Predict the structure of DDT domain-containing protein.
Amino acid sequence: MPLYKRKPISLAELPKTLEPTDLVYQIRFTKEIFHDYQDYVNRINLYRQRLWSCKVTGKSNLTYEEAMVSEKRATEKVQQLPQELMAPALHLIQFSMLPLKDLVDLIATKLQDCLHEGVQLDGKREDGVFPCRIMKVRDQCSKIQYEVSWLGKDNQPTGSALLNEDELIKKKPPVSKSMLKCFIRESTYRGAPWVLHSRLVEEHGISNNLPEELKGKFCFQNGVLVNSKKILNNAEEQKENMEDQESSRVYRRKMKVDRKKLEDSGKEMNDKEGDITAVEVIKYPIEDLLVKPEADDPILTIRPSPLRDFKVSADCIGDLLMVWDFCSSFSRLLHLLPFPLEDFENAICHKDSNLVLIVETHSTLLRLLIKDGGEYSSSLQKRRRKSKITLITWTEYLCDFLEMANNDKLYSHIATIKRGHYGLLDAHAKLEILRALVNNAVETNFVRELLDEYIEQWHELGSTRREEALQEARKRREEHLKAKIVSNGTSNEDGLIIGEKNQGILINNHGKQNGRVKLKKNKHSPKKSVSSHADATSKNNPMMQMQDAEARNGSTQHLLKKRSHQMMLKQGTDERELTLSTKEQRRQHYEREMEKRFIRTNPLGRDGNFNMYWWFRRDGRIFVESSDHKLWGYYHTKEEIDLLIGSLNCKGEREKALHGQLEKYYTRICGKILKKSKYMLGKIAVEEAVVRRSSRVRAPPRNNPANAFLRYVNRWKEE
């Protein structure tokens, strides 16, 4: 049984009131059954923690299921130990106080010297050393001899002889040390001292009597070896528990009497010793399959079923998307003008052998392989092919590639292609060929160098974004400090303190002294006389008149500065709005630049049923891949995207992550869908216009918008 923190844990018991018609929760690998869902969740979460260890091998940091698998494999490995070596090994293990490593070394050295029937080794003969196998061990007069049979080719016996021990050459240990470790752990139920299971003791006749040095320290209790000190401690604990139980019994009896008295007097007593049931709160998100609906859950929409109207079979859609995504993402490197996914799908299903879109796709991939100078290029040089691939010769280069690929499935299509009937191949075969070309193109130096360059540019863009974020944070701190200084108040050149509490107060030592003198002189006079006297003195004194004028001038200047400060604050808010808009523009710019440097397309995420959701940058649809990779579908309208987002339960881990990715790319996905819908509406309008024309002026079929893939021209073609 796996160990939890080095201790075994017993399995949960079956519910006592279990009926055949009851719905229960069962753990798959332990077969435990639960009535309550919360108990089931708690137990399975315990088993999923990496706190378990294998009892046989000692491996730690495992889940319960991994520990079970490890124990099973180790037990099967231990059973391969020869029966002749088992008894000597068990004798050495019983009551040994050695650590595991030292005990393994001791057993390995002892078994190295232990020769038994069936052991294959080398024996000395007059004409040399030859392989042999021990057939029988003879013990005659305290001298052990071994009857061996000489082995020839295919280990067939060629003769027999009787050899002494010194005439035998031992090859390697009969058992590895790792197997011995597993054997020791499997055979014992405790260590230091190591004690064997009673079954092995009886089966191999091993003594179960304690050695003299262990008799005072250990003893047997209920057939299990335990420490004597622990027995004494347990006895003391039991005694204390009995005393506690007795005191609690007396206390309960007293409480019962008191309760009865209170009931008789007409009072009610609240029982303070009631059971408190602790409700464990589940911390979301959790595993999606374990999410249980609750009353306070938000209302989820019904998930729409994806469309599956593909022209190719379901098992080809993955290859179709992979090839199209590679050609679209590395179009500049391939010198291939990008084309819509619908056109590529129509071209794959078309029966024309020299369709321009198909020819250019194959040709650009083959040119890349030739430029790389790899195996394909060297094979072409041996055949003395021209380096230019044309509309006539592209099939020859393709056949050379299929021969080089050394794939039976691809090789079977060469005859059809050489006859000029590439279009007669089914879509599955065409996509298999393109997939092989793309796989070889990815391994070329051109693609790898481009990817390395993109990765470096990604790092540079990330560093510039971090620097800008640091600069913006620094500016915000400086503005915050300036605002604090303005709110606390600062003195200006005109002697005014600009602040909330002391605006317009004159700082002039001479004026303060005069004011104090006047106040001292008129200390006991009423306020009116003081004010009138001050007015009179100000009229008579020209210095006072100048100070009053300066004060009035200063107050007007202060008001003007206050208004200018308010204007600056308003202007600052406008500038901040501008910086925010430019910040948003910069963020979009960085995202566009990072998209240009394509590395790989990752799925948006998975839903609760492990279905995978893909979104490609050049297509507006969201593709859905089933968990078994056999079915594909897609969503192509904004309403379907909204319903999909509304149907995701954020209590589950996978659906929460998928919800976040869909919210992140929602505006871009909807923008692509809107753009594509406008294009399709225009396309339908043109088609209807073509249908309404008379037969005399009807456009030829190649000008029909539905056959746009027939008019494809690679304007990026490398000359």
About this structure: Residues 329 and 600 are 9 Å apart (CA to CA).
